[in-house]
Amino acid sequence: MAPSYENLPLEDEEFDESQIDFTDLEEQYQVRLDEGLDAFVVIDGLPVVPEDNRAKLIKFILRKLNSVGRVKDDGVFMPLNEETGQTEGFAFVEYSAPAEAIHAVKQLNGTPLDRKHTMVVNKLTDIDRYGREGRVDEEYHEPQIEPFQQKEHLRSWLGDPEGRDQLVMYRGDKVGVFWNNKEDPPEQVVDRDNWTESFVQWSPQGTYLTSMHAQGVQLWGGKAWSRQKRFSHPGVNLVDFSPNEKYITTWSHRPLQVDETHPVPSLSLEEDGKNYIIWDIATGKPLRSFATLDVPTSTDAEGNPVKKKMQWPTFKWSSDDKYVARMTQGQSIAVYELPRMNLLDKSSIKIEGIMDFEWAPATPRRDGVKTYEQLFCYWTPELGSNPAKVGLMSVPSKEVVRTRNLFNVSDAKLHWQSEAAYVCVKVDRHSKSKKSLATNLEIFRVREKGVPVEVVDSIKDTVINFAWEPKGNRFVLITTGEIPAGAAVPPKTAVSFFAPERTKGGAVGNFRHIRTVDKKNSNAIYWSPKGRFVVVATLQSQQSFELDFWDLSFEKPKEEKEDKDVNANLQLMATAEHYGVTDIEWDPTGRYVTTVASAFRHHMENGYHIYDFKGTLLREEHIDRFKQLLWRPRPPTLLSKEEQAEIRKNLRNYSKLFDEQDLAKKNTANRQVVEARRRLLEEWQAWRESQIEMLKALGAEIELNGGRVLKEEDGAVEEVEEIVEEIIEETEEVIG
Amino acid sequence: MRPILLSGHERALTQVKYNSDGDIIFSVSKDHVVCAWFSHNGERLGTYHGHQGALWTVDVDPTSTLLATGGADNTMRLWEVKTGKLLKTWDFATSIKRVEFSPDGRQLLGVTEKRSGHLSTIVVYEINPDPETEQTNEQSLRIVCDESKATVAGFSYLAKWIIAGHEDGTISQFDAKTGELLYSTQAHEPDMQITDLQWAPDRTYFITASKDKTAKILATESLEVLKTFTADTPLNSAAITPVKDYVILGGGQAAMDVTTTSARQGKFEARFYHKVFMEEIGRVRGHFGPLNYVAVHPQGAGYCSGGEDGYVRVHHFDKPYFDFMYEVEREQANL
């Protein structure tokens, strides 16, 4: 019998509360009472002086003590040793508030007084807590070193025999990692409820999956999807990884609160009041923390304050994780060296007026430069009579490699090509009257001698989007005309393709316009990570959801004459539509494209589509409250250039093998489906037969007759004659 | 399959029913009027006037002589089909959400709403099939649903049990003689209302539709879930087709949740699923509001749907509908 209220034993006679040993619980949940001594600090390390000099010494240290708070009147008690008549070298100090005492400990502990004496400041309560006899073990115990435990292989997913890619899907409250199975349902690897609280993110090489929590950030990985690291940062909003997954930056809009009443694991008082923490992923320890810089509030033309968008990532990493830099807008860039996180040359780089900067996404290989360097590109607007400037700076030398002066600049955007061979500065220029806008492209050829700059100024309209071909030298841009004020419909856009001219000797020639497709709505460009293919799409639109799949190196049939001048052959392969699309992503191998209608932005037909690179729809699925689909990135290949070339040469043989595999898989899958259906049908028919037998046994005539009640007259056949007359034509004639 | 549009109602349809011969369709709507239509051409046969409030439900007896209706005016009424004469009015404290005749037409059940202190009940009356006689005022059975209100109910084969669907997603089985609760099962998601319950022709199994976006086929005797059909929108109705092994589901976002951007967003489509394989076969568009009820021709010749948009759409199935077969079905048919 289940226990209910009635038969609960009223009193357990053999039970004696006093016999339970509560000491462990008491210890665990011991409450630290406010002892009223929180405003006291103990100062040690003071000089030992005779009584006569005591007042002088007190006056001296008071000067220091009052710098962080207000010491109560007569708040310093410096006891005398009765035997020697000298001070003991320590003093008790009472501040007017406990917060000041905490502050004093933070600020003054370790302050040198003179050459011999250094002040040691501790809270009185701490002395009581740790200093009392027995509280701290007198004997040294060697710390226990945990035995080494073999960790899971963090890159095991790369060993998939079919070379499939993984993706993470966040839908509803569930986060799951799946294998991509093309048109078949993705195969689940792991699926967990409430794995994250706001979103998930892969690390740049796919080793870790990041989950966000109110308490901080967690990294997951390995075959079992176990927790790899945990970074406690209460109220964290965003994270950013360094390119090689060595470091992670966490940011919260709320300054951290770390003190004795709010302890946070692995954070110290150092981190109090900070917004950013840069962590070492391997150790899980914070390297350095920073507070958000106050952006000087600027005003627009009418004098209203302009709300500045936060730049993310604020701390930008050089491609090799060696440097991380943050810009103070309009003033300087602070470059920090890893792993010590010290300011490079102990000072930030002053660049007056700086608006934006970007690191080269790969280690640059400049012509004639042998030494190690990283480059970043920055721009400054027109200041007084000085022109606007775009510059390239080399680190660690801090040498400006190249600058270029520009006029009438209203805005600029910096676009690096993925191998750092080019950087394109998209300059929005206004006419003298400041009425119309046009865009120039200033392309810095980083690898060529002296970094020549090529200007593309044939564009009449404003460029709203620009993207380099990864590992290539072509680019796509989208322009739009003037936006009429108050127009409900966004203006039509035009998509333009550019490629370098073909030159003798294989050098990259000048960039030339290939083709413009106008009267489009497109606003987003997604290049395949391997180059050549590009998806031009319309996102965030109410009316249009087009996806255009372009091939820039289309292989024409031989008889057609090829355009010899330009290194491109453009072809629109397919156009697709995904209602309500919000995000588009290529898989890391450039084989598939996923489009997502995410519940983060709207709640209509949430779900995803998978296309192949040609734009054929492979799979679509609607999932309620579908939020994210992210491909797991792959680390750079380990194969040498020669090995890759070898594979490319034998591609035909390989593809034959894969085709066979695909076919075999499909056949077995079909067979399985047919088998399953056959089984279902047989089961159903067997069940139906048993039910009909039962009805027959019960004599249920009406039911067996499909619900029709047989009436007496049903036996007699009633004949109904129906005559249908169709009037084809009617004419009236007056006879007379 | 060009549908016939029946546009005789001024407000949202709540239920549509074929008679057992399939030649007449009865429809009720929130505009207080019951309509009868010829199913083959959509001509209106007549209307039944008298209700003072929105109508929720209609049923016709197996011989097409008597018609029962129930609505928000807290009455359940019995009409003569042929003449439109009001034969009987039963008054209740709350509105009537569902009426249904027993397979032999000699019993009528009604489901009453739970409101203002009145619990939801399932009441049963003995019916005299002769329209000339006086009907009884005496309830032969009264089941009080005190746990969760009943939304739909019906008689099993031989009127052995009463099966009811509840607001909390449960299905329960009552003894139709004693009213004793025999068994109850959480067939649908908890707290997701059962919106419809329709029988297979021989009443050994039935289909339920729910706001949890699924429809399920349950065995009458064991209440075991045999099949589950998953849609992407809350369902208002589900029907089983005779002849072919299909089910038809109807639903759509509730009117208050519908966005104004695009009609396709509402998912106002009738969805066809294969009954055995539980796979979606096709959809029929047309309504521009949620489908409140779908009913299938008893001989499987067509179906009709009543929508929130105030229209009844009557469809007659074409040859391809009957020809369509899965590979394994064809195998069996050729044996």
UniProtKB/TrEMBL annotation, chain A:
<comment type="function">
    <text>Component of the eukaryotic translation initiation factor 3 (eIF-3) complex, which is involved in protein synthesis and, together with other initiation factors, stimulates binding of mRNA and methionyl-tRNAi to the 40S ribosome.</text>
</comment>
<dbReference type="GO" id="GO:0003743">
    <property type="term" value="F:translation initiation factor activity"/>
</dbReference>
<comment type="function">
    <text>RNA-binding component of the eukaryotic translation initiation factor 3 (eIF-3) complex, which is involved in protein synthesis of a specialized repertoire of mRNAs and, together with other initiation factors, stimulates binding of mRNA and methionyl-tRNAi to the 40S ribosome. The eIF-3 complex specifically targets and initiates translation of a subset of mRNAs involved in cell proliferation.</text>
</comment>
<keyword id="KW-0396">Initiation factor</keyword>
<comment type="subunit">
    <text>Component of the eukaryotic translation initiation factor 3 (eIF-3) complex.</text>
</comment>
<keyword id="KW-0677">Repeat</keyword>
<dbReference type="GO" id="GO:0001732">
    <property type="term" value="P:formation of cytoplasmic translation initiation complex"/>
</dbReference>
<dbReference type="GO" id="GO:0016282">
    <property type="term" value="C:eukaryotic 43S preinitiation complex"/>
</dbReference>
<dbReference type="Pfam" id="PF00076">
    <property type="entry name" value="RRM_1"/>
</dbReference>
<dbReference type="InterPro" id="IPR011400">
    <property type="entry name" value="EIF3B"/>
</dbReference>
<dbReference type="GO" id="GO:0005852">
    <property type="term" value="C:eukaryotic translation initiation factor 3 complex"/>
</dbReference>
<feature type="domain" description="RRM">
    <location>
        <begin position="39"/>
        <end position="126"/>
    </location>
</feature>
<protein>
    <recommendedName>
        <fullName>Eukaryotic translation initiation factor 3 subunit B</fullName>
    </recommendedName>
</protein>
<dbReference type="InterPro" id="IPR012677">
    <property type="entry name" value="Nucleotide-bd_a/b_plait_sf"/>
</dbReference>
<dbReference type="InterPro" id="IPR034363">
    <property type="entry name" value="eIF3B_RRM"/>
</dbReference>
<dbReference type="InterPro" id="IPR035979">
    <property type="entry name" value="RBD_domain_sf"/>
</dbReference>
<dbReference type="GO" id="GO:0031369">
    <property type="term" value="F:translation initiation factor binding"/>
</dbReference>
<dbReference type="InterPro" id="IPR015943">
    <property type="entry name" value="WD40/YVTN_repeat-like_dom_sf"/>
</dbReference>
<keyword id="KW-0694">RNA-binding</keyword>
<keyword id="KW-0853">WD repeat</keyword>
<comment type="similarity">
    <text>Belongs to the eIF-3 subunit B family.</text>
</comment>
<dbReference type="GO" id="GO:0033290">
    <property type="term" value="C:eukaryotic 48S preinitiation complex"/>
</dbReference>
Automatic annotation (TrEMBL), chain B:
<comment type="similarity">
    <text>Belongs to the eIF-3 subunit I family.</text>
</comment>
<keyword id="KW-0853">WD repeat</keyword>
<protein>
    <recommendedName>
        <fullName>Eukaryotic translation initiation factor 3 subunit I</fullName>
    </recommendedName>
</protein>
<dbReference type="GO" id="GO:0016282">
    <property type="term" value="C:eukaryotic 43S preinitiation complex"/>
</dbReference>
<feature type="repeat" description="WD">
    <location>
        <begin position="48"/>
        <end position="89"/>
    </location>
</feature>
<comment type="function">
    <text>Component of the eukaryotic translation initiation factor 3 (eIF-3) complex, which is involved in protein synthesis of a specialized repertoire of mRNAs and, together with other initiation factors, stimulates binding of mRNA and methionyl-tRNAi to the 40S ribosome. The eIF-3 complex specifically targets and initiates translation of a subset of mRNAs involved in cell proliferation.</text>
</comment>
<dbReference type="InterPro" id="IPR015943">
    <property type="entry name" value="WD40/YVTN_repeat-like_dom_sf"/>
</dbReference>
<dbReference type="GO" id="GO:0033290">
    <property type="term" value="C:eukaryotic 48S preinitiation complex"/>
</dbReference>
<dbReference type="InterPro" id="IPR019775">
    <property type="entry name" value="WD40_repeat_CS"/>
</dbReference>
<dbReference type="Pfam" id="PF24805">
    <property type="entry name" value="EIF3I"/>
</dbReference>
<dbReference type="InterPro" id="IPR036322">
    <property type="entry name" value="WD40_repeat_dom_sf"/>
</dbReference>
<dbReference type="GO" id="GO:0071541">
    <property type="term" value="C:eukaryotic translation initiation factor 3 complex, eIF3m"/>
</dbReference>
<dbReference type="GO" id="GO:0001732">
    <property type="term" value="P:formation of cytoplasmic translation initiation complex"/>
</dbReference>
<dbReference type="InterPro" id="IPR027525">
    <property type="entry name" value="eIF3i"/>
</dbReference>
<feature type="repeat" description="WD">
    <location>
        <begin position="6"/>
        <end position="47"/>
    </location>
</feature>
<keyword id="KW-0677">Repeat</keyword>
<comment type="similarity">
    <text>Belongs to the WD repeat STRAP family.</text>
</comment>
<keyword id="KW-0963">Cytoplasm</keyword>
<keyword id="KW-0648">Protein biosynthesis</keyword>
<dbReference type="InterPro" id="IPR001680">
    <property type="entry name" value="WD40_rpt"/>
</dbReference>
<comment type="subunit">
    <text>Component of the eukaryotic translation initiation factor 3 (eIF-3) complex.</text>
</comment>
<dbReference type="GO" id="GO:0003723">
    <property type="term" value="F:RNA binding"/>
</dbReference>
